[in-house]
Amino acid sequence: MASRENKNGIQQLKSRQVTLSGFEKNYGIELSVDCIIFGFDEEKLKVLLIRSDLTKYSGKWSLLGDLVFPSEDLDAAAYRVLKQRTGLSDVYLEQVSTFGTVSRHPAGRVVTVAYCSLINVQHHKLNILDNELHWHDVKSVTDLAFDHQQIFDTCLMQLQKRVQEHPLGFNLLPKKFSLRDLQNLYEAILNIKLDRRNFRKKFFSMDLLIDLDEMEQDVPHRPGKLYKFNFEKYGKKKKSWVGIDF
Amino acid sequence: MASRENKNGIQQLKSRQVTLSGFEKNYGIELSVDCIIFGFDEEKLKVLLIRSDLTKYSGKWSLLGDLVFPSEDLDAAAYRVLKQRTGLSDVYLEQVSTFGTVSRHPAGRVVTVAYCSLINVQHHKLNILDNELHWHDVKSVTDLAFDHQQIFDTCLMQLQKRVQEHPLGFNLLPKKFSLRDLQNLYEAILNIKLDRRNFRKKFFSMDLLIDLDEMEQDVPHRPGKLYKFNFEKYGKKKKSWVGIDF
DNA sequence: ATACAATGTGTTTAATTTACACAGTAAATG
DNA sequence: CATTTACTGTGTAAATTAAACACATTGTAT
């Protein structure tokens, strides 16, 4: 691939795979994953951040990530980071976007794939022994290290969109939750206020909540009923949605 | 990074960036981009494919892609591929997803970032001199090389979703188009039939089409009026859409 | 002149979304 | 134990949006 830079496109492409098969030259692009780990606690949407260990960004917070191993699937790398940090497996994890600006990392070329993860903060014992690791209210997340602010903003926006179209939010709640919990969650994610009666009507009309015939405990007021989400029923019904609107 | 594989997570992460800064070792993951180039012609949604040059996949069609250069932004690499193939710049291009299964490429580890591109087939003189490069009706795209079928399916689904929420479709049409053109486009992308009157009502009520006071030419029937899309007006109005439904 | 194949337009009905108020219940207080 | 407090739980009317549906008009081709 000596003449890589100056061949015409088709020639170049045709010779690519020949080169690739031999791996004569590696382009030196490092690949990493970054996990944007969301949690819901104290009626607020939180994100898990770690203090940057680069002097350039000392004092700043950054996302949790690591390089991808040569023989590791991308998703597996994201799961690995997640498990290392939270001790959790079997959590919601979704690829969001890949960030590959040449100078995004001060140490050299690193392309990173961002993953959004939603975890239930009750279900885990975080390794927050490490006092460099903290939950942050998403409303106060600013000025992250690297291009992590941009990555975070992208993930939060995608979460806001997707939570309205898919039952992602339940990953952030305990298995049993009240409708108030659910509404608080949506209000925290979307950063808006919703009408309580219409919110209930909406969810009841979807007919995807299972009434557990149990009540909240230890609340300082009239307890609400508890529900769980009917994932099975949701899995069966495929909604093919058509509605042009922009 | 001698002990990379057996350190605990936090230690490992802390040592990562030290290693990175020196680039002592490259993990040997190649990075590529693949462009899913859509066009609209003969009232059909088309995708541009090239014959695979790998013997393993001989006879099969594949997407257009190339390795990313070490000092090239990801988006720039996608633009480069696109320009080489179509001669077009200033076209719609959007990152869709990244595919990184270890064994997705027979020649070794290659992670690829998929980009969706929408081009106006009138506006370009394709280098289809190369008879290995062809437009294919998306309905008949099956059994692509590598994992390209999966990538293609992902991109088509994303296009179907996004075209309903954003004015992407106009990138596939000439600047001047009739409402029938527009409806044909949506029907081709979504693979459904739409009611003509409701379709018109919908678009007129958005008030984003500019009536050009011109008529179609050379049609073998009553000509329709021509419109263009009001990108400027669309850019100004930000719709913050809330509607939980799944 | 006529047949043809489109364009262009409106209304009625159903479905969905929004706005909005009051009674009921458990816990906490004195 | 009576009262206050702070929630839960429910229904209806109005407005908006989406869906179904038919006929007159215009230019082309014969």
How would you describe this structure to a colleague?
2 copies of one chain form a homodimer. With 246 residues, chain A is α+β, with helices and mostly antiparallel strands. Chain A folds into 2 domains: 30-165, Nucleoside Triphosphate Pyrophosphohydrolase (Alpha-Beta Complex); 175-236, Winged helix-like DNA-binding domain superfamily/Winged helix DNA-binding domain (Arc Repressor Mutant, subunit A), CATH 1.10.10.10. The first copy, chain A, has 6 helices and 10 strands, in the order αββββαβββαβααββα. In chain A, the strands form 2 sheets. In chain A, strands 1, 2, 3, 4, 5, 6 and 7 form a 7-stranded mixed β-sheet that branches. A 3-stranded antiparallel β-sheet of chain A has the order 8-10-9. The radius of gyration of chain A is 22 Å and the shape is globular. The model of chain A is unreliable at 1-24 (pLDDT under 50). The interface between A and B is large, with 72 and 74 residues.
Descriptive terms for the model:
Arc Repressor Mutant, subunit A, 3-stranded antiparallel sheet, 7-stranded mixed sheet, Nucleoside Triphosphate Pyrophosphohydrolase, homodimer, DNA-binding, 246 residues, alpha+beta, 2 domains, disordered N terminus
Write the layout of secondary structure elements.
Two copies of one chain form a homodimer.
Chain A: H1 9-22, E1 30-41, E2 44-51, E3 61-62, E4 64-67, H2 74-86, E5 92-99, E6 110-118, E7 133-137, H3 148-165, E8 177-178, H4 179-190, H5 196-206, E9 209-215, E10 225-229, H6 231-236
Parallel strand pairs in A: 1-6
Antiparallel strand pairs in A: 1-2, 1-4, 2-3, 2-7, 5-6, 8-10, 9-10
The structure holds a DNA duplex (30 and 30 nucleotides).
